[in-house]
Design a protein that fits this description.
Helices cover 38% and strands 22% of the residues. With 484 residues, it is α+β, with helices and mostly antiparallel strands. Strands 1, 2, 3, 6, 7, 8, 9, 17, 18 and 19 form a ten-stranded mixed β-sheet that branches. Strand 8 (207-211) and strand 9 (214-224) form a beta hairpin. It is globular and about 75 Å long. It starts with a helix and ends with a helix.
């Protein structure tokens, strides 16, 4: 019996190895020259600092324009423009079949990245570091990886003399991560003719989710949460530190943060998140699948809901979330503080407004000595937030869904295409408000426990980048349907 078990195990291993090799052989991949070009563009973008504090999206936009000119794009189809010298945007038009009645597809991708301090990272965040099969650097997940891939694919298609059945527009923009010069908003207000389109593909949303490299799902973003920042301030006359008083602003702000830490915004499902969890219940491991089904029940099972809420990604899909992100207080080590301030960052479920959440925070803190005011993306402070709730999701396009299924079957066999809600917010808010249906679609695979957007040691595997290059290429060809 032990001998038969050993032989059986060996045979199974050989069969599994053969199946894996056959699957790998059947997967499409870009040619080595395209992969190398993508790698070089990716490295170039990572090593251009585009943070809001000291960086420049203009330098990155100029670098990409130069790449595209070298790849055969005419000057007339490359527009580099913006509201000031540091916040440039690049709009690229890939010309389709002359006389086509079809309106363009717009792809949006932001060039700016969040701040990153060298002392916080194990690598230099503004150096493209290749280590242990990963690419490290600020923007390797969010979202220079997608910018580099799209520029590479545009050059590849031009080299192949591909003629799409409509124009494809790529807008690489500024200030998605914050600031007063959001590129998508600015272009829509000042140069809408350059980016007007039938619909938008935004690689800043959606994802290919994996566990230990194994595909789980191909997610298309059909909805997203509403972004909001709030300034919470306490003040007092201050005084000598030897005479402490109960109205110390730091105490007041600390009590407010303690209340926020213990507070749970209501559990809610919408049409997108209910559909998402219904699909995920079919493919998750049995314990998690059981919790999802119990959470979807009427009424939801409290234990299952608590277990799911303990997982950050699920908590963000099931609740509005608010978290302190920055804090400052005091003016001298030997004086009572005269002011304490904290920024509360919220991601609000569809159907609720910035002002509604501001009022909930006021009620939660229950301290008339605290002020809670809305902070705009440009840093302006207002007594009230907007009463406008997040946009309703657009209908899912049949051609886009079919393309995702077909390409997914080649690159990530067995992973279903699932509509989901983005936990954060993106530039799709501007295109949706401009009545251009927008969809989050990204072909860069990441393990669900390796989400490092905005965080330390941001990274992506080299294999994910190669697959993402092929995904973008296949997607654009599938959606622009020309037979060449």
């Amino acid at each position: 019996m032990p001998v038969r078990l050993t032989i059986s195990t060996a045979v199974a291993a050989i069969l599994m190895s053969a199946i894996t090799a056959a699957q790998a052989a059947s997967r499409p991949s870009a040619d080595p020259a395209t992969v190398q070009l993508g790698h070089d563009i990716f490295k170039q973008l990572i090593e251009i600092n585009t943070t809001g504090s000291v960086g420049s999206t203009t330098i990155a936009a100029e670098a990409m324009a130069q790449r595209l000119r070298a790849g055969g794009f005419a000057a007339i189809d490359l527009n580099l423009l913006g509201p000031n010298p540091r916040k440039g945007n690049l709009v690229v038009r890939y010309r389709g079949k002359p006389g086509s009645p079809l309106r363009p597809i717009l792809i949006i991708g932001h060039l700016d990245v969040v701040e990153a301090r060298r002392e916080d990272w194990t690598t230099d965040p503004f150096q493209f570091v290749e280590k242990d099969g990963y690419y490290y650097g600020r923007g390797t997940q969010d979202m220079k990886v997608d910018d580099a891939a799209m520029v590479t694919v545009f050059i590849r298609m031009r080299k192949e003399h591909y003629v799409p059945n409509r124009d494809i527009i790529l807008a690489l923009t500024a200030d998605e991560e914050g600031g007063d010069s959001n590129g998508v908003d600015w272009l829509l207000k000042n140069h809408r003719d350059l980016i007007d389109a039938e619909y938008v593909i935004n690689p800043d949303g959606g994802a290919v989710s994996t566990d230990a490299g194994k595909p789980v799902s191909i997610n298309i973003e059909a909805a997203e949460k509403l972004y909001a920042d709030y300034e919470v301030v306490a003040v007092s006359p201050g005084g000598h530190s030897s005479l402490p008083t109960p109205d110390n602003p730091i105490y007041r702000v600390t009590r407010a943060l303690g209340a926020l830490e213990q507070h749970a915004f209501p559990f809610e499902l919408n049409v997108v998140t209910r559909a998402y969890y219904s699909e995920m219940a079919k493919i998750e491991a049995p314990p998690r699948a059981a919790d999802i089904r119990a959470m979807l029940a009427t009424p939801p099972d409290p234990g299952a809901l608590a277990r799911l809420t303990a997982i950050a990604n699920d908590n963000a899909k099931l609740h509005t979330t608010c978290v302190p992100t920055m804090q400052s207080a005091g003016h001298a080590v030997n004086a009572l503080p005269q002011r304490a301030e904290v920024n509360i960052n919220c991601r609000i479920l569809p159907g609720h407004s910035q002002e509604e959440v501001r009022l909930e925070l006021v009620h939660l803190f229950n301290d008339p000595a605290l002020t809670v005011r809305y902070r705009s993306d440009a840093g302006e402070i207002f007594d009230h937030g907007s009463d406008k709730a997040a946009m309703s999701p657009p209908p899912l396009r049949a051609d886009l869904m079919q393309a995702l299924k077909d390409i997914g079957a080649k690159l990530w066999p067995g992973a279903p295409v699932v509509a989901t809600m983005e936990n954060g917010a993106s530039d799709s808010i501007y295109t949706m408000l401009a009545n251009i249906p927008s969809y989050g679609v990204c072909g860069m695979a990441n393990d669900r426990d390796n989400i490092r957007w905005h965080g330390k040691d941001e990274r992506i595997t080299a294999a994910s980048f190669r697959d993402g290059l092929e995904f973008d290429y296949e997607l654009l060809r599938a959606l622009t349907g020309a037979k060449n």
